[in-house]
Amino acid sequence: MKIKIFSIIFLFLLSTELLAQSGTGSLKGNIVSFQDEPISGASIQFQNTDIRTKTDLDGNFILKAIPAGTYILIVSNVGYTASKQNLMINPGKTAILHLQLSKSKQELKEVVINRIKNPYQVQNSSSSTRMDVPLLSTPQSVQIISSQAIKDRQAFTLNEIAGTFTGMKANNGNGSFNMRGFTAYSPTDASFLLYNGIRGNLFLWSQQPLLYNVESVELLRGPSGALFSEGAPGGVVNFITKKPLAQNRYGIELSLGSWNFRRASLDLTGPLSGNKKLLYRAIIGYDKSKSFRDGQNKENIFIAPSLTYLFSDKTELNLEINYAYQKTVQQYDNGTFIRTRPDGTFDFNYYPDHLTIQSPTDYGKTHNTSATLTFNHRFNDRLKMTAVQRVVNNALDYTDHIPVGKIKNDSISRGYQDWETNRFSLQTTAYLTYETKTGPLKHQLTGGADYNRYGWTKNDYQYKAASRISIFNPDYSNDPPAASVAAEESDDNKRITNLAGIYLQDQISFGRQLKALLSLRYDSYDAKETPLSSRDNKQGDELQASGLIPRLGFVYLPAENMSIYGTYLKSFNPQTSNNVLSGGPFPTRKATQYEIGYKGDFFNRQLSTNVSLYQINYANILAPAPTEENSHRQAAIDGTRSRGVEFTAMGTIRNFNVIMGYAYNEHIILSTSAFGKKGDRFNNAPKHMANLWLKYNVNTGLIKGLGIAGGLRYVSDQVGLISNQNFLFPEYTVLDAAVNYRKGPYNLQFNAYNLTNKHYFTGSRSSTVTGGLGDPFNYRIGLSYQIK
């Protein structure tokens, strides 16, 4: 039924386009530089309309079905002076344009002046290939949620925007996400989250990543080890942060919402010097909220200053600093209780939603700091260099109560965790991009090197038994356990991992229609975990691992607005544990993906579509393999297989903004072990997910500036625990809506989430006792003021 709904919507949009064909003309042309070199990615826009496109790698473009009339055409690109000229479009005729752009001395200013207002569609991304090429020419499934889409959803964390991506969901209220059937949640890895294409997650796994300084969010589906050395098999998320601008702009946002939610942010940017060479940006944010769940009080402070210095039109240096402080009663939500019936089935509605295993005595304090220095230099139109140094430090102090065993007579035993840790990441990245020709072939070469030193200098962890509580009438008077209670488990160690890698990539163009992408990376890991006191009873961990990571892709463009692609991707990551007491060292975890797909831009390239089919094989997962001599022994198993199909459509068509998607995924275990039986479904991996967000903007008349939006998120049933395939979270559909009114620099907005107050579960952690609970009906009211 839900697939039919999406088909009807898509056919409606298509029929609207067909009805608009009468009385229209076309425009095609070629844009070159002052040296007669083709300019790829140049923006072609009809002023005060949504008619726009970008040039391909040969500098060519075409716009079809343009309503007849006289327009002002703007052509712009970074590093060149924008061109503005009158243009007439005649019915049934094709206008021809050949234009040469001259150099610009104010590169960033041109981008600001000619940016498209309020777009949902982003046609270019440099993150997937580290080259600024159209997504049509990228042999990988990439989806980008723009700044305007984030604002329309009033999404303030990655968790709140996750369901807008096709095939992605948040598993719970912390940093755990599912992409293509795989859970991205890595407490001891470098994380699946990138910042401007660079490793070094600002936030710990126990937090929801904040979006105060984020311009757009990119999802690169599948393994991405060839460029980023990131081994998350389902995909990586890349935050594009807000940069200093050459024009003064001031903005303030205020929000109020359910459960005493309060939020305020300030965004200031502009030049600091008269010659506009020194630019700044300052972002400050604060939010505080409670929850419908007991004890989930949270407070965030976020500060992000940045500076850009333009040495010339070819060279710039950017420094960005982020500081995020979080104070909570409970660091993250361990989930609400689930009752097991006598027959082994589960009652997901038995216990009230507000009850929690955690204690009012629990707390969390987190200090996250990062600094990123980026140097860009363009030697000429063909050769560019980028060098990045990123430093991240995380300090966490928290206590937590967790479930132990099963619920009996509406009571449960608990454990107590006390954890202090200091974690760091030092990332150095440098790469060159070069465009050249060998005979009829065009090459876009990228070569670089990475060095990442990450880990922790302190990992002080203790686990103790805590008091048993009645679920309906909990008594927390004995929380936390006394200091005299002996710890049953204790860690006190440090861990340092050194990762060095080099890579080379070539995107080859065989004429306009056929392109190939060839990449090869070599990574070397060297890690050591060292006890810091006698409390750590492990012998320590050491690992050395290295390997080649290939990437092969092709793109065929049968027309300028559509492409067919195929890709072969690999990645690998060392195990999080190689302790000899557990049977280590273990082989590295490896992911291999095969994907074919189709991309097309329609409605004058305002609507982008993507259909992809994929299979991911993930090998060497660790599973318990105890023996009489060693109850802690583990073994690497064959792994899992995830395969599926995805469809995405997003963009702006006349007065409508739309994001829609459907994903089918089957993720199963390939062999029988203590991990699970062959053919068992993977946990937190629903087979079907669908999403829709549709907004109508009133652009004329008395109510000009009014926007009305609505959407849905559908998730089919999902296994909560691999070892118990009967533990199934029910399917759910959540409806959301929004309305906003923009008048000059002001925007007033109201969002309502979960309109039907649906009771639903998002996923589980490691037992059948609790599960992540979705938010009931809630709302937000936002007011923003911006001067440009």
Summarize the structure.
Belongs to the TonB-dependent receptor family. By secondary structure, the chain is mainly β.
> Biggest β-sheet, characterized?
22 strands, antiparallel, barrel
What's the CATH C level of the largest domain?
Mainly Beta
**Broad shape:** globular
CATH topology of the largest domain: Maltoporin, Chain A
Question: For the terminal residues, how far apart are their CA atoms?
Answer: 45 Å
Protein name: Iron complex outermembrane recepter protein
Keywords: Cell outer membrane, Ion transport, Iron, Iron transport, Membrane, Receptor, Signal, TonB box, Transmembrane, Transmembrane beta strand, Transport
Membrane topology: Multi-pass membrane protein
Family: Belongs to the TonB-dependent receptor family.
Spell out the key features of this protein.
single chain; mainly beta; Immunoglobulin-like; 22-stranded antiparallel beta barrel; five-stranded mixed beta sheet; 5 helices; disordered N terminus
Descriptive report:
This protein is mostly beta strands. The protein has 2 domains: 24-101, Immunoglobulin-like (Sandwich), CATH 2.60.40.1120; 241-350 and 360-787, Beta Barrel (Maltoporin, Chain A). Keywords: Cell outer membrane, Ion transport, Iron, Iron transport, Membrane, Receptor, Signal, TonB box, Transmembrane, Transmembrane beta strand, Transport. GO terms for molecular function: carbohydrate binding; siderophore uptake transmembrane transporter activity; signaling receptor activity. Residues 320-755 form the TonB-dependent receptor-like beta-barrel domain.
